[in-house]
Design brief:
Blueprint: H1 18-33, H2 56-69, H3 72-76, H4 81-86, H5 89-108, E1 111-118, E2 122-123, H6 131-144, E3 151-165, E4 168-181, E5 184-187, E6 197-198
Antiparallel strand pairs: 1-3, 2-3, 3-4, 4-5, 4-6
Length: 199
């Protein structure tokens, strides 16, 4: 199914091909897998599937978990239905292949996912005229085919992923950009990269 939507705030960018978005998306996700090492000493209660998009912290945690674990179904739940419904069969096949590769890598490295914790999500900027805010807005609008004026709020959330690697408990930190659209919160592709730290 092809999804094309005018981006009213950015003349010259009329349509976005979902296949190109998924390729960029998959490349960006590889960055998120290399996560860094301060958001609590232990993981919090897991987020229920029905609550994934209810708060910015929930969707940030679910997205970080899905990327770490290679859970393509959980990952797609972090994006608006308009976007996921626009993905072609080839896009979904690529995403499934990424998922299988990620899970195989975790198994090979004897890595067991334990859980996540997060800090309180912070506004990207109180001033919507700043370059940082406008760049984030443009990125979300172009990546997900959402009219920029429909994006209500943009926040960032620091998430810590806990895991066992062999017999050692470790954690990895990442920053997830989230945005409010149609009264729900969704994840955008963004991450600070680094190396695992001891828990």
């Amino acid at each position: 199914m092809r999804f094309q939507k005018a981006i009213t705030s950015f003349p010259g960018e009329k349509t976005i091909h979902p296949g190109r978005r998924i390729i960029v998306f998959l490349l960006s996700v590889l960055v998120l897998i290399s996560l860094t090492g301060c958001i609590g000493a232990d993981f919090q209660t897991s987020v229920a599937d029905s609550a994934a998009t209810q708060t910015p912290e929930n969707v940030a945690r679910v997205f970080a978990e899905s990327v770490f674990c290679g859970d393509n179904v959980k990952m797609l739940a972090c994006f608006p239905a308009e976007y996921t419904n626009s993905l072609a069969e080839t896009d979904l096949t690529q995403l499934k292949a990424w998922s299988e590769e990620t899970r195989a890598a975790l198994e090979k490295n004897e890595t067991e996912y334990l859980g996540t914790s997060s800090s309180e999500a912070q506004l990207i900027s109180d001033d919507t005229t700043t370059a940082e805010y406008k760049n984030s807005l443009a990125s979300i609008s172009l990546s997900f085919g959402i009219v920029s004026t429909d994006i209500e709020e943009i926040r960032s959330c620091d998430v810590r992923v806990f895991c066992n690697i062999g017999n050692d408990k470790k954690y990895q930190d990442t920053t997830v950009i989230i945005y409010k659209y149609n009264a729900n919160w969704y994840a955008c592709i963004n991450a600070d990269s680094g190396i695992p730290d001891e828990a």
